[in-house]
Amino acid sequence: MHIDSIQWSRWMSVGIQELDDDHRVLVEIVNKLAADDSRNSPDVIEAILDELIHYTKDHFAREEEYMQRANYPTFTAHKALHDALTRQVETYRERFRASRDTIPGDEVFDFCADWLGKHILKEDTRFGEYATGPGVAAQ
User: Fold this and answer.
1) What is the DSSP letter of 132?
2) Which region, left, alpha or beta, applies to residue 72 given φ > 0 means left and ψ of -120 to 50 means alpha?
3) Which residues 6+ apart lie within 8 Å of 136 measured at CB?
4) pLDDT digits over 30-43, tens only?
5) N or C, fewer C-beta in 10 Å, the chain?
């Protein structure tokens, strides 16, 4: 079975180069799960989940700095969302570790793609619109 990888497009952009670069890296990490050889190896899947969690934590910290500098009005809610998203993927990784032979790679890819897509496309683009709007100095 072939899974379509996530394709970056400009409508995913938040308009801040460093954050867009981070998002591209996150997409690349999740897309590693789209490769047949990756999806069929529990060791590789677990390593990709570990990489995703590590990079996500770094990215969230950078993004939160931008939000604080821009006085983003919903910063507290967005940070709480980051914390919840981190817990969600960490919980998924633990579930995978406990049942690695029964959770197919396709399911892991679907989970990660959905997890990433909903956050970038919905939440982060809202911040991008705010930060790049008139009168806001996010940089």
Assistant:
1) T
2) beta
3) 70, 71, 130
4) 999 988 888 889 99
5) N
Q: Which long-range contacts (CB under 8 A, 24 or more apart) does 23-31 make?
A: 23/59, 23/120, 23/124, 25/55, 25/59, 26/52, 26/55, 26/56, 26/59, 26/116, 26/120, 27/116, 29/55, 30/6, 30/109, 30/112, 30/113, 30/116, 31/5, 31/6
- For residues 119 and 135, give the distance between their C-alpha atoms in angstroms, rounded to a whole number: 25
**Interatomic CA distance for residues 47 and 84, integer angstroms:** 21
Q: How many CB atoms lie within 10 A of CB 110?
A: 13
pTM beyond 0.85: the answer is yes
Distance (Å, whole) CA 139 – CA 121: 21
Q: Are the beta carbons of 41 and 104 closer than 8 angstroms?
A: no
DSSP per position, 18-57: HHHHHHHHHHHHHHGGGSHHHHT-HHHHHHHHHHHHHHHH
pLDDT per residue as tens digits for the range 64-86: 999 999 999 999 999 999 999 99
